Amino acid sequence: MDTSRYAELFLTESREHLSAINHALLEMEQNGGTADTVGALFRAVHTVKGMSATMGYHDVADLSHELETLLERVRRGDLAVTSPLMDVLFKAADTLESAIENAVADGPPVKIAKIIERLKAISTDTASGNGGNGGSAPRRTSGKAARQRAAKKAATPLSVPTVRADPGTIVKVTLVADTPLPGVRAVMVLSKIRALGQVVAVDPPEDDFGHDGFNGCFTCTMIGPALAPEIEQAVRSAGDVDTVQITGAPVLAARRGTTVLQAVGNEETGVKQQRHVRIDLRRLDSLMNLIGELVITRGRLFEIGRGLADPALDDSLAQASRLIGDLQDEIMTCRMVPVWQVFDRFPRLVRDAARTLGKDVTLEIEGKEIELDRSMLDEIGDPIVHLLRNAVDHGIETPDERTKQGKPAVGRLTLSAARDRSNVLIRVSDDGRGIDRGKVLRKARDTGLIDPATAELTDEELMRLISKPGFSTAEAVTEISGRGVGIDAVQNRVRALGGSVDIRTAPGRGTTVTARLPLTLAIMRALLARVANEVYAIPMAHVRETISLDGANVSTLQGKPVLLLREVVMPLVRLRDVVGLPGRVIEAGDDAEQAIVVELADKEVAVVVDQLPGQQEIVVKQFDGVRGGLNLFTGATILGDGAPALIVDVSSLF
Amino acid sequence: MLICDDAIFMRTMVGDILTQAGFEVVGEAETGLQAVEKYKQLRPDLVTMDIVMPDMGGIDAVREITKFDANAKILMCSAMGQQALVVEAIQAGAKDFVVKPFQPSRVLEAVQRVLG
User: Which of A99, A504, A647, B72 sits at a 20 to 30 Å CA gap from A122?
Assistant: First the structure.
């Protein structure tokens, strides 16, 4: 069957289960594996196994099967939760994750043989140690099932043929060759036969049905009045029966009374409305797009309305406008997803980072339920990872150091999300050593980044300095956060999303970094810039100021035009040249050219345009770009007057 | 039809198989407890039941449902390697079983068998 259309659903759900697996593993490491934790872990792995087998992802299925086998032993208490065991489990979970991602993406196969071997080694090691199942293949038998079977066995020793005067009816059943779980099917067949009479012997014994060697063929002896056709019908009703041979059945017998099956009444089965539906993300994107265009049309209608000055039209427009606004809010809400969908993988990440660095850190997560636009949520994961790694690496001290300073040995790291009007604040806060202002100040003075006379740094100046690319006070390069280029990467990313970053730090008490993000990426505020007859949109998040070039201090440095603005020299770029429009012939009476000071990661560039028609909320439409064309734009939008405008990729200007 | 599985993926797939064959899916359950509750509420003609689910496993759910309705028609959905559990489920009152990975033809065969 074609499973490809389920791939996305499979991936989404598998990720949820992987997250559950990681959580359970972390919990297990801490509490030694309570029944609840191991149970949850087992269920998650088991579900992944079932799903991946259905999708035909054999690597994933095999790996989860081995993992499940091992967990089953842990669940039964055969296997103690030890640090080496946890390491293997964590490793297996990681491999499982890459195997899943790869299977869905159809990427190169992930090497799973090694980890499977390690899992197997642990499984079998203790198996022989416990002498549990001896030579037979490990059977997944719950204690209850085993007990029940034992009880039944004691009551009717089925495997021992009973010598009787009545030889009984011998029924030989062969199941269809490729039937799944033949043992179970055989049990079902047997229970059908039992409904017709007393089964006195089964060969091979019923208990062997579950063994790998069972080939789906068995013979049983029953005593009862049932006729051969009756028996055959009963046997076949169990399903997957190939042949039935019946010998010695009574030729004539009194018909047994048939049980009248009670009809299952379902008159009152009112179809209950499901309260949730799953919607393809692309549908929501296109809804968002449509509502965006509706918002634009609304603007146009208003303009027309103003010209006509008809009170009745104005009323209807106001009404329509409110409805469009409500609709926009509703659709925005549909696209919102709780941040835990991304936050959920961080406890594991912090644990791993802390372990590598020999630190002890607990991560607290607040505001998990806060919601953010799906598109935004996908983008903020990496910056947060950066911040968390930074905090564990540079912020939080080693347990020794902390104890010496009278702090608790375990460092506290908090990740929180909070709503602030139309923004979401994501905050990473640690109780570590804080940023050494003295050190930053010295380094900034040494490298000439600030006035040598500066005696103290404000938080803003500090932020500005540490977000300079390559500015780092870290002495050593570590595996965890590299050279400390974290902050500028974070800032660039957050800026690109239309947000801002702010930092607060106190020596000895820790550092808090706050990223302020808009709720969505789909709508942003942009400055409109006109060049010749074309209008371009520049995201406001990058615009620092605009000036008229008339009388501005423009000169040339090393053959390139520069703008000197309040003693800062910045490159001067003509948007006209960048987009490849012909040069402008300035005529008398033309307005002076305008310059937009655009900033990115503390670098500035002055962009020269003809006119600045204003700023407005724009609806961002994804943009595939032209093949072989310039990589200058991040998307496109439709303006209030219906004209299209390209959205300038600010980073391409530098 | 009532579909009980903790994985949406599985519910969707089983649901599609059944719907395409002309059956109507009247409800879904994610846990054993939900399965029992929904069974009582919806009285479906047939229940597909996963074995491993949170809260209450499929086997206990089978017990509860058959306690409520001795003629309940329950089809177990099992993964490979759950032989003993499937036997337990059958003994608890389930009427038949299918094994993941599902082949639509097998699922429908089993459904027909159970519906008799």
Answer: A99
CA distance A343 to A430: 16
Is CATH 3.10.20.880 correct for B2-115?
no
Alpha-carbon span A139 to A479, nearest angstrom: 43
- Does some domain include residue A110? yes
- Tens digit of each residue's pLDDT (9 = 90 or more) over A18-30: 888 988 898 888 8
pTM here is 0.51
CA distance A116 to chain B (A): 17
Query: What's the pLDDT tens digit per position in A92-120?
Result: 998 999 899 888 888 777 888 888 888 88
- Touching check for B56 and chain A: CB below 8 Å? no
A interface test, pick of B5, B75, B77, B87 with most A CB neighbours within 10 Å: B87
Last residue of a domain, one of A503, A518, A533: A518
Helix (H) or strand (E) holding B46: none
Give the residue extent of every domain in chain B.
2-115
Answer yes or no: is A242 within a domain: yes
Q: Are B83 and A183 inside 8 Å of each other by CB?
A: yes
Neighbouring CB atoms inside 10 A of A608's CB total: 23
Judgement on whether residues A314 and A218 belong to the same structural domain of the protein: no
Q: What type of residue sits at position A123? A: S
| Subunit contact A6:B13, Cβ cutoff 8 A | yes
Rounded Cα gap, residues A383 and A496, in angstroms: 12
CB spacing of B10 vs A51 below 8 angstroms: yes
Whether A58 is catalytic is: no
